[in-house]
Amino acid sequence: MEKITLSIVKANVGGFVGxxxxxxxxxxxxxxxxxxxxxxxxxxDSWTSRTGDDLALMMTHEKGVENKxxxxxxxxxxxxxxxxxxxxxxxxxxxxxxxETFNGTLRGLGPxxxxxxxxxxxxxxxxxxxxxxCELGAWNLPLYxxxxxxxxxxxxxxxxxMHEGFAFEILDVVENKTLTLQCPGxxxxxxxxxxxxxxxxxxxxxxxxxxxxxxxxSWPRPVGIGHSAGTDDPVLVVRCQNGLPTVGEATEAFAFPxxxxxxxxxxxxxxxxxxxxxxxxxxxxxxxxxxTASGFQLANGEFVGPVDLFDDPxxxxxxxxxxxxxxxxxxxxxxxxxxxxHDQMANTxxxxxxxxxxxxxVRNDADGKKKxxxxxxxxxxxx
Length: 383
Hints:
Alpha-Beta Plaits; four-stranded antiparallel beta sheet; 24% helix
């Protein structure tokens, strides 16, 4: 059988209301566009969903990753959806569409993209995790738990096909370098990198015994686009069962609402809360950061599902814990650690605000005396 390609594209094409949700008319336009493409044979199947104010397009086809036709279809679909949003006067239409023209790839144009080409197993089980109001590094801890932590994933101990461990491909988003670490041997090095979630993020996870790609995350957004410094609103695909984590082991990695960056105005930190799709709207302080989990089987490239995996009362205590963390973090208001550390706000409106006060800064010389910075206008007045 030919390889199946799973392409997921996610973007904010207009919020309803504010940054809260997606309007049903926008979703319907997306379904209409993808159905037309499937009827022409471009796609095998498609599915649309939402998380917060982001629209997600999921497509299967046989054209491989980064295919121009598929990327153009996604771009035209998102553009058409943004036009619907504009007619409805929704908030910030086409927010994540950074160009008016398509240049052959979605890379650098704003939408979040995750793609994987693979040979479909006899029973192909996978989960699509969609996150809102958070950074790409939000997947670091859950992926570590799924594929390197035997306290989370029993298969690492008892399943012979998992016992050899997994390789983690890590991207340095600052210097654009890639490093692959083999676990369990490199596990301490892995933790050292993954703990710096703002700089080092997991690109993919590979089963060491045979090289099978087990998980893949979305590309990072271009550096410095607008004022979304801490927000990638990322996508994660995790394949499950038959020598990979079970569905329960993959979702268990979200049973702890760990802190992530990207909340309110992309400059605040908060807990990642696992929610049902019906609860995926972001209202409390435009959040808190949340994640949905849609489980699928694949049958000859066609989707069977989804099952809304976080629509489960077993996660109620996790959600309550997340809200308790929200109450604690919100009491900090604009103070760290709720707000980003100063050095992480380079791509936000914060530096221009500081620049306005530059002329009022007073430098302390080595002898302890204060010396006010002389401005050009002050120098002219002194002449």
